[in-house]
Structures are given as C-alpha cells and as structure tokens.
C-alpha cells in the first residue's frame, strides 16, 4: 500500500505552497552511502522505505533505506545526510534529512530514491524500525508517505 501511495505524482509547481512529492516506483537509486548511529546534520526533510527485496532479521545490524526528499526539487532528492538514529526498547527511530535545496521554485514530478546503508551498530532484535519523519508533529506525518503509519519494519 505504501508503494502505491509513493507512486502518486504531483504536477503543480511548488512556489506558493511547497507540497511534498513522492518518489516514483522504479526510479533509479544513487550510490549507497553508509551511516552510523550519530545525530544527523540539519537539512531538508526526507522520508524512507525499505527495498522490496529487504531481508531484515532480528540479528540484522545494517539495512538499506531508500531515501526521498519530501519537498519539491524537480525530481532530485540530492545528497542524503547521515540520519539521526534513536534506539529504544521497542523501536529504533531513523530520521533522514537531505542537503537543502537551492532557493526558488521547483517542479514536483516526484523525487528519486537514494539508497543509503544504515549501520545500527547493534542487532535489531524485537524492535520495529520507524521513519522519524512520519511521527506526529513532523513534516511528513500527514503526507501520502506516512498516512498508513511510521513503521517501516516490524520483526515477526
């Protein structure tokens, strides 16, 4: 269902009302980058999903996130910054940002997805992976990326 929501495209310009734009299924991904559990630098909001072929297990310490800029940027996510990783007892919250876009209007055809390898530095265990941008009060919370829920993975 999430992938269907991500498939929707926006066609209006973002000058007056910057509406978030989803990444298109099948869009190419850029080179993977690696992250460790540190606080990410400030930037523009981004959301993430797991690849369809993801094979996370309780013993997993790494995963690949497909990151997409939330706001309009002419179809380009741009450089993904190191995510903020907040491990807890029942969940691990991973929040991404991207390098801020250049000033001015941008079209909203749907931004590409950038593969980013996240290193949790500890086993996932029984914890869920949560997109921090989808939590209540965050910029992505009411977008089509996050309307179902913020959980990206829940161990069985």
Task: Spell out the blueprint of helices and strands.
Blueprint: H1 2-7, E1 34-35, E2 44-49, E3 62-69, E4 84-87, E5 91-98, E6 114-119, E7 128-131, E8 151-153
Parallel strand pairs: 1-6, 5-7
Antiparallel strand pairs: 2-3, 2-5, 3-6, 4-5, 7-8
Approximately how much helix is present in the residues? under 10%
Mean pLDDT: 79
Question: Could you give the distance between the termini?
Answer: 19 Å
Secondary structure category: mainly beta
Question: What's the SSE pattern?
Answer: HEEEEEEEE
Largest beta-sheet details:
8 strands, mixed
What is the rounded Rg? 15 Å
Runs in which pLDDT lies below 50 for 5 or more consecutive residues are 1-40
Shape, principal axes of CA atoms: elongated
- Contiguous helical run count: 1
How would you describe this protein?
- This protein has 156 residues and is mainly β.
- It is elongated.
- Helix content is 4%, strand content 26%.
- The two termini are 19 Å apart.
In a nutshell, what does this entry contain?
This protein is mostly beta strands and 156 residues long.
